[in-house]
């Protein structure tokens, strides 16, 4: 308890001694905004600068923190000592009592020297270390669900052998199997473990094998046709080595990541004039990377990983061995061939790191992190479907009503992070991620001034699928945005500079992800996080924004005027397969067993006589790509998924009738058809679908409700839907 009833000015009897401590300050159960929050005796806030927290006082046994304009921002509601004996003061926002921050005693900081006292000399702080390279390249800010990588199959040359040796020691929670692959050769019929045990395989084709040792004789690049021969041969070798190494991918659908080649650090052309030409080995390797990317794209469930970019960001001078080994070796400089000191010399060789510092651990961390984030993307773990942006101090610097008045020029600059965020928005849209605005501002004023503030005019209000600019609490606006987009808050990222607004939204919508405190981090997080990547663009993901921004389901899908089209999928080679897999993993409300599937799982399902009946829908003013799918096997409907944009059209019964017809066509017309529903917290809308279609419920089995349509019964069919 803060004992003093009223206090303004120098303290007398305050308990706890607020002015004698340094505090950590931030949201309850969140990251601290500062570790050096000081309540100075003169009533000012020191050690932390923000317009929301400028001064303080005590009234009626409460600590009050005031904003720059003198309004109350925080008031204390509780003070206690935690298990470590540290004082915690819980603060609440007066107009949003669910929004709570904490002042926590920070004994690691020195007793504050207040501005009213002579300032002690401050030592020069060390240069900031910045983010670790793995985190910088592959941000974890949007991760919610932890992922455990159980087993990885490594296939490749000596560089992959090094990964095997090092990563299994660094990550004992993950098992690693390794198959050497240095030349065009045949892999074992089966990998060391059953294919089903691997999360994925990681393939690294050796650059030296692709280029051959002919390139070591550099003078030969002066020979006419030599470069062309090397390049054409290399393309053929890539094809041959990929074809062999992808055997487990093609036979079993095993998810595969393929490493590209690390490009040499400097040009290797015979002359300056020929740099960038085919006589420059660096250029050849870049073209081989292009070729490798094209070839990998022809395989199902396979993706290229850009290891060259990882090495470039960390610094190839700290990694690549091309200053010691062949240009074409393409490996790292901390392998076991450096046996300095084992042979006597007139002048002893010092350790390699005395002249070429090596970032071994940094590189290995980044490589493993790249694998994990690629896996997260392919499995759509914590996938972001929409990003909602604040305006002031988020989409532009400063406040539109205060800092962009004609009489206050010059206005805040736009170069740097505002411009970067504008471009980010367009790249998110390109991935099918919806973007929206949620701002406490005057809509008409923002609309009138938009073109003045957004200069150059790279962004317009029409680029956003939803715009909420009003005085309504932001959490309420975001709930409405989620309804418009037919998504849940867990699929949304909210970007706002104000920690109070972020905390208020997170308090009301616990599953939403909030960022934006540091504008220098926002673009990187949104563009580089695994959760904002998509594994493969489908027709649906490419048109998601257009659909949501221009379509109103109530207008476009008239239940009395719908056409439905079916397609039976029996192979992953069918072009509709990618959309079906995406739909299966998106569907939560209409998903009869809640199961999400991956490429390998569905491949196995189709190989074992399973098939998928997928369907699309056309209304009077809209045509949708695949909106539903039924997984069928023998005489059973295994799973039924459908997008919620079709709710209310009654096409679900029509699709069941078609599934029954398809199943009976493979048996007899009087075959009993069975189905099941496993109830989940989300799938209420589909729990009665089989009853509506004429099925009868039987005894539950293994926690799932069971249904049957006997051979003497026909499914109920809505009359208003026409089948094409």
UniProtKB/TrEMBL annotation:
<feature type="compositionally biased region" description="Pro residues">
    <location>
        <begin position="120"/>
        <end position="129"/>
    </location>
</feature>
<dbReference type="InterPro" id="IPR010033">
    <property type="entry name" value="HAD_SF_ppase_IIIC"/>
</dbReference>
<dbReference type="Pfam" id="PF00702">
    <property type="entry name" value="Hydrolase"/>
</dbReference>
<dbReference type="InterPro" id="IPR036412">
    <property type="entry name" value="HAD-like_sf"/>
</dbReference>
<feature type="region of interest" description="Disordered">
    <location>
        <begin position="106"/>
        <end position="130"/>
    </location>
</feature>
<dbReference type="InterPro" id="IPR023214">
    <property type="entry name" value="HAD_sf"/>
</dbReference>
<protein>
    <submittedName>
        <fullName>HAD-IIIC family phosphatase</fullName>
    </submittedName>
</protein>
<dbReference type="InterPro" id="IPR036514">
    <property type="entry name" value="SGNH_hydro_sf"/>
</dbReference>
């Amino acid at each position: 308890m803060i004992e003093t009833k009223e206090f303004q000015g120098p303290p007398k009897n305050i308990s706890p001694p607020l002015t004698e401590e340094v505090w950590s300050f931030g949201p309850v159960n969140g990251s601290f905004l500062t570790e050096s929050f000081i309540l100075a005796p003169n009533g000012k806030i020191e050690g932390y600068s923000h317009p929301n927290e400028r001064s303080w006082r005590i009234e009626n046994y409460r600590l009050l923190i005031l904003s720059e304009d003198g309004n109350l921002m925080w008031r204390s509601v509780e003070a206690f000592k935690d298990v470590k004996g540290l004082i915690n003061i819980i603060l609440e926002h007066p107009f949003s009592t669910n929004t709570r921050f904490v002042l926590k005693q920070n004994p690691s900081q020195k007793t504050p020297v207040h501005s009213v006292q002579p300032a002690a000399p401050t030592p020069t702080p060390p240069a900031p270390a910045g983010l670790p390279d793995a985190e910088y390249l592959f941000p974890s800010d949007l991760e919610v669900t932890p992922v455990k990588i159980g087993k990885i199959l490594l296939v490749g040359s000596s560089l992959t052998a090094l990964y095997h040796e090092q990563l299994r020691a660094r990550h004992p929670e993950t098992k690693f199997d390794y198959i050497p692959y240095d030349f065009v050769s045949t892999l074992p019929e089966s990998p060391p473990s059953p294919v089903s045990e691997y999360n994925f395989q990681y393939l690294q084709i050796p650059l030296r094998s692709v280029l051959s040792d002919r390139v070591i004789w550099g003078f030969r690049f002066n020979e006419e046709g030599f470069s062309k021969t090397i390049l054409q041969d290399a393309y053929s070798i890539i094809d041959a080595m990929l074809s062999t190494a992808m055997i487990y991918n093609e036979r079993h659908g095993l998810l595969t990541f393929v490493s590209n080649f690390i490009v040499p650090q400097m040009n290797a052309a015979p002359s300056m004039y020929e740099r960038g030409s085919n006589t420059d080995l660096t250029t050849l390797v870049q073209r081989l990377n292009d070729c490798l990317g094209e070839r990998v794209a022809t395989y199902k469930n396979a993706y290229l990983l850009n290891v060259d970019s990882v090495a470039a960001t960390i610094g190839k001078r700290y990694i690549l061995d091309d200053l010691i080994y062949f240009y074409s070796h393409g490996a790292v400089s901390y392998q076991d061939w450096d046996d300095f000191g084992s042979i006597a010399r007139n002048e002893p060789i010092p350790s390699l790191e005395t002249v070429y510092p090596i970032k071994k651990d940094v590189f290995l961390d980044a490589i493993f992190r790249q694998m994990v984030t690629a896996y997260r993307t392919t499995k759509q773990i914590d996938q972001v479907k929409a990003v909602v942006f604040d305006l002031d101090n988020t989409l532009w610097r400063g406040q539109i009503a205060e800092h962009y008045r004609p009489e206050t020029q010059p206005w805040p600059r736009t170069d740097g992070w505002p411009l970067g965020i504008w471009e980010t928005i367009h790249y998110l849209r390109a991935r099918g991620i919806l973007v929206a605005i949620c701002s406490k501002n005057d809509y008409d004023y923002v609309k009138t001034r938009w073109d003045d503030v957004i200069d150059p005019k790279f962004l317009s209000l029409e680029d956003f699928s939803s715009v909420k600019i009003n005085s309504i609490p932001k959490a309420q606006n975001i709930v409405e945005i989620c309804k418009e987009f037919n998504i849940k808050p867990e699929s949304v990222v909210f970007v706002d500079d104000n920690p109070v607004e972020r905390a208020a939204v997170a308090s009301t919508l616990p599953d939403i992800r909030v960022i934006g405190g540091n504008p220098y981090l926002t673009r990187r997080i949104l563009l580089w996080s695994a959760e904002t990547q998509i594994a493969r663009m489908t027709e649906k993901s490419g048109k998601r924004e257009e659909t949501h921004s221009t379509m109103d389901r109530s207008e476009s899908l008239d239940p009395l005027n719908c056409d439905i089209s079916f397609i039976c999928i029996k192979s992953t080679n069918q072009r509709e397969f990618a959309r079906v897999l995406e739909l299966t993993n998106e569907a939560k409300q209409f998903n009869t067993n809640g199961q999400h599937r991956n490429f390998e799982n569905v491949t196995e399902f189709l190989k074992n006589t399973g098939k998928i009946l997928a369907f699309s829908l056309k209304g009077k003013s809209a045509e949708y790509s695949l909106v539903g799918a039924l997984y069928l096997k023998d005489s059973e409907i295994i799973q039924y998924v459908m997008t919620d944009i079709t709710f209310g059209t009654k096409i679900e019964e029509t699709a069941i009738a078609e599934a029954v017809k398809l199943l009976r066509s493979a048996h007899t017309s009087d075959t009993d058809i069975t189905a099941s529903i496993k109830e989940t917290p989300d799938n209420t809308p589909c729990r009665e679908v089989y009853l509506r279609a004429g099925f009868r419920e039987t005894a539950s089995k293994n926690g799932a409700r069971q249904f049957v349509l006997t051979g003497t019964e026909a499914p109920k069919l809505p009359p208003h839907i026409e089948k094409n």
